[in-house]
Amino acid sequence: MDQSLQEVNVNASAPGRICLFGEHQDYLGLPVVAAAVDVRCQVRSQSREDRIVHLELLDIGEVFSWDLDALPAPGSRGYWLSALHVASREGWLPKTGWNAQVTSDIPQQAGASSSTALVVAWCGMIAVRSGLDVTPRWVAEAAHRAEVQWFNEPGGMMDHYACALGGVRRFEFAPSFCEISLPKPTGTWILIDSGEPKNTLGVLGRAKHQRLDLMEHWDTTWSLDSGKALPPLPVSFSLDQSALMEGTVAIRDVSEFGYQGLRDFADEPLQWAPLLTHHHDLLRDVLHVSTDRIDRILMAALDAGAWGGKINGSGGGGTCFVVTESSMVQDVNSAVESKGGRPMVVELGEDGVTIEQD
Questions:
Q1: What is the SS3 assignment for 28?
Q2: Any idea which fold 188-346 has?
Q3: Domain ranges across the chain
Q4: H-type helices in the chain, by residue range?
Q5: Helix then strand then coil, % of the chain, to nearest 5
Q6: Would you say residue 1 has pLDDT above 50?
Q7: pLDDT value for 7
Q8: Strand 52-57 versus strand 354-357 pairing type
Q9: pLDDT (mean) for 35-42
Q10: How far apart are CA 88 and CA 109, in angstroms?
């Protein structure tokens, strides 16, 4: 281990993300298309000579201090601590402590990966302080262990890969992980905070757990992404259960068509932007992840000239986004604000996790 790394400042940052196609698919083993956006979580750190970690969350005025030799158990959403525990268990906990200051301009608790971005940046900073030479993929997988596996939560890995690798990418999870870089799609992208807190755990009851259970009872020998004809639905399924599985296949298909449109016609938004809206409609009607306010915001944006848009992240509140031509941004923003949304123009294809020493 290079002890000199512990004598310098280490700063890390990671972006938020939007999910273009494939919401609620990664934990089914299906592909996802996501894009990093130019809002970021920043972690700055300075070395100490003792074993204390002193953390300041500047945006909300909270301060924490921990002894690396006596780490307390993390509470709910205590990702700062869970990452330290994972590092200790896996052998990449630094030998000396540090002071850290954290800021973020990612909408909080809104489905834009604010928590994942901070865990990605935090894990990357910790690993470099320990002397590891890490890759973005390593950081993504370490962050998933700290944010999801440690707490036995139900999330997939889309957020971690999107925040760590950046760009615009398709992520495939089965039969093995693969990522495909895509061209940056044309248009002006507007991320919209609905002002409603998201309801991740409530949504996942239907979006993940119920569907995984139904898939197991449907037929364990087939795969949703195999491209083969699907077996008949079991006669034991209720009408609601059958509709959920049929809708799952429809979400799979619109996500695949959307990916192909972005891959082949990135500069022709009419080839893929309406599919964003169709994807939203399916997520609303099949998985019930939208809200009345988000539906009103999206409808107003479309009426004002947006090409397409959809809810973003787990749902039940949080953010949505639309894409439009630059000349229509003011009209679209005004329409969004009239329905209670808070719009911000974002750039797609932001760099992933960055870690610097000075």
A1: helix
A2: Alpha-Beta Plaits (3.30.70)
A3: 3-184+350-357, 188-346
A4: 79-90, 114-129, 136-144, 158-165, 200-204, 211-218, 239-264, 273-282, 292-303, 329-338
A5: 40, 25, 35
A6: no
A7: 56
A8: unpaired
A9: 98
A10: 28
pTM of the model as a whole: 0.93
Structure token digits, residue 123: 């894990």
Query: How far is residue 298 from each of residues 45, 68, 132, 327, measured CA to CA in Å?
Result: 40, 47, 44, 18
Per the structure block, which two tokens stand in for 22? 């494939």
- Distance separating alpha carbons of residues 253 and 259, to the nearest angstrom: 10
Which amino acid is present at 339? K
Q: What is the pLDDT of residues 173-190, one digit of tens each?
A: 988 899 999 999 999 999
Share of the chain above pLDDT 90, in %: 81
d(CA 166, CA 148): 20
Tell me which fold the domain 3-184+350-357 belongs to. Ribosomal Protein S5; domain 2 (3.30.230)
- Residue whose pair of structure tokens reads 């329409």 in the numeric block: 335
User: Which residues, at least 6 apart from 343, have a Cβ–Cβ distance to it below 8 Å?
Assistant: 190, 191, 192, 332, 333, 336, 337
Tokens matching residue 6? 């512990």
**What is the DSSP code (8-state) at residue 285?**
I
Give residue for tokens 């000349």: 327
Please say if the pLDDT value at position 153 is more than 80.
Answer: no
pLDDT in tens, 249-306: 999 999 999 999 999 999 999 999 999 999 999 999 999 999 999 999 999 999 999 9
Q: Which residue has the tokens 């609303």?
A: 284
